[in-house]
Specification:
Layout: E1 6-13, E2 16-17, E3 29-33, H1 46-56, E4 60-69, E5 72-73, H2 77-96, E6 101-106, H3 118-130, E7 136-140, H4 148-153, E8 156-159, H5 168-184, E9 189-196, H6 211-224, E10 230-234, E11 247-254, H7 257-273, H8 285-294, E12 299-302, H9 318-326, E13 332-337, H10 339-348, E14 353-358, E15 370-380, E16 383-385, E17 392-394, E18 398-403, E19 406-411, H11 421-424, E20 435-438, E21 454-457, E22 494-497
Parallel strand pairs: 1-4, 1-6, 2-5, 6-7, 7-8, 12-20, 12-21, 13-19, 13-20
Antiparallel strand pairs: 3-4, 9-11, 9-22, 10-11, 14-15, 15-18, 16-17, 18-19
């Protein structure tokens, strides 16, 4: 009986906002080694979807390292050095044990001080270690930036097809299935890449209902009918200001450069025609508050500019200040990152009344502290699980504070807040409130939009504002829509293949 094919399994995932002034560090990463990585088999993650495929194909995973961090600011030079050394050491050990292929789970929107293409560097070094003949397949978030250096190292890829993201495991499945085919069939992948000088944001990116989803379904069709080995449209993370930030269409076929080019050019042209629709639609804070006062049912105030899942600090108090100053009197539920206030609450204990400031301690140029006198309603360790992925959250010492008509969950660490997990974990049900602040551009429909009367996308400052021209990009290629006026575009494909 022939030996099982051995597949090197590696993961490194982080998304950053270049406009977050607080650097992320090595300690931001949750790192597991070897067999610990099997913990993801029961989760809706890329590894969780890939591993069953490899098992079914009678292939043996060679676990190396998983490094996962929440979205944050640019990774510090020291943090990148430590992370890089640990990943490359783990990869080297795995390669030396004997392998036949590589599956690398990535996000695509990392950035580090001194290395603005960390994923490209990791893939370059992995390719150097495994040689030219072994296949490397990667999975990516559609908000990633698939750089030319990355494309030069890999034999194939799979890209998320949903936003808000729910297809983490499915993307891992597609990546693993492609890797199995590369090992068992005489495939000759060729990828056509069309770079579109556009950054997009807004409701039309919701793939269930928006025009972006209509284009994604074309990419899915190409995969499902067998025209393409993989297909996707990556819109990048507009807050990751790096040289190759862009939107891009990627079509991989089996030795059919003409079809790959035609389909990539076609989809890129269709995307460009829709670029104006795929921009954020905002309302001023003042107008949103005025309308919310007159609405009978519950409303959401979307604080997308301070979206922690996109890389913001989470310490914006602009909406809280505006509601308080306006005399809004209905019940408000909110979350904020403020480790000092959380620690003060823990020292005082449940039931105590404390005088603290909320917010404005991290992104100090945009936000100033908000003084409050509050009652400590509840204290917790800040641990929860995301609703969609079931992955763990650790916000550190957490406190629920009450003042006037406000209930605020105060976190010590920045974690993803794109669902209701941190509310539920602290004994709070959003449906018990009249106005809920959500620090995420979008959530799954059932979480809020299914039952609130209105969801207001508020236009205020923040490191992840969808009002993209206000952010101040200095590194990405220009001209770039909507950062610049009069941007023109003629779709043209570049081809990539490995012999």
């Amino acid at each position: 009986m022939p030996n099982k094919s051995r597949i090197l399994i590696v993961e490194c995932m982080q998304e950053i906002s270049s406009f977050n002034p607080v650097p992320s560090q090595y300690t931001n990463f949750h790192i597991t080694h070897g067999e610990q990585m099997r913990e993801q088999e029961r989760l809706n993650t890329a590894l969780g979807g890939a591993l069953p495929v490899l098992h079914s194909a009678d292939m043996e995973p060679v676990f190396t390292i998983s490094a996962r961090a929440g979205s944050a600011g640019l990774l510090s030079a020291e943090g990148w050095k430590a992370l890089l050394e640990e990943i490359l050491e783990a990869v080297s050990e795995g390669v030396q044990s004997g392998i036949d292929g590589v599956y690398f789970s990535l996000h695509g929107a990392m950035g580090a001080d001194g290395e603005l293409d960390p994923e490209g560097y990791l893939l370059q070094e992995t390719r150097r270690m495994v040689g030219d003949s072994l296949p490397i397949v990667i999975s990516l978030d559609l908000h990633g930036i698939l750089t030319e250096r990355m494309l030069q190292q890999v034999n194939g890829f799979a890209i998320y097809h949903t936003y808000p993201h729910v297809d983490f495991a499915d993307t891992g499945r597609r990546a693993a299935e492609l890797l199995v085919r590369l090992l068992r069939e005489d495939l000759k992948p060729v990828t056509a890449r069309v770079v579109i000088p556009a950054l997009v944001r807004g409701d039309e990116l919701i793939t269930k209902t928006g025009c972006y989803g209509d284009l994604i379904r074309e990419a899915q069709r190409l995969e499902r009918e067998g025209t393409a080995l993989s297909a996707g449209i990556m819109i990048g993370n507009p807050f990751t200001d790096v040289p190759e930030l862009c939107t891009q269409v990627l079509i991989t076929t089996n030795n059919d450069a003409e079809t790959a080019t035609q389909e990539a050019v076609r989809l890129a042209g269709e995307f460009w025609q829709l670029r104006n629709r795929m921009q954020g639609k905002f309302i001023s804070l003042e107008r949103a508050i005025a309308q919310a006062k007159t609405i009978q049912g519950a409303v959401v105030f979307t604080d997308a500019p301070d979206a922690t899942s996109s890389g913001a600090t989470g310490d914006s108090n602009i909406l809280l200040k505006g509601l308080q100053a306006s005399g809004y009197s209905k019940r408000v539920l909110a979350q904020i990152v403020d480790p000092v206030a959380a620690e003060t609450a823990h020292q005082a204990g449940v039931g105590a009344t404390i005088e603290v400031t909320l917010g404005g301690g991290l992104d100090t140029k945009r936000f100033s502290p908000m003084p409050v006198k509050a009652r400590v309603r509840l204290l917790s360790d800040g641990k929860a699980r995301l609703e969609t992925m079931r992955a763990g959250l650790d916000a550190g010492k957490t406190a629920v504070l009450e003042f006037d008509n406000f209930v605020v969950v105060v976190l010590s660490k920045t974690v993803s807040l794109f669902d209701r997990a941190m509310y539920y974990a602290n004994g709070l049900n959003p449906q018990d409130f009249d106005l809920i602040i959500v620090k995420s551009p979008h959530t799954e429909y059932a979480m809020y939009d299914a039952w609130v009367e209105k969801n207001f996308n508020i236009d205020v400052p923040g490191a992840t504002s969808a009002n993209l021209p206000t952010l101040g990009h200095t590194i990405c290629s220009r001209p770039m829509f909507p950062l610049d006026e009069g941007v023109t575009f003629t779709p043209k494909a570049a081809l990539y293949s490995r012999k």
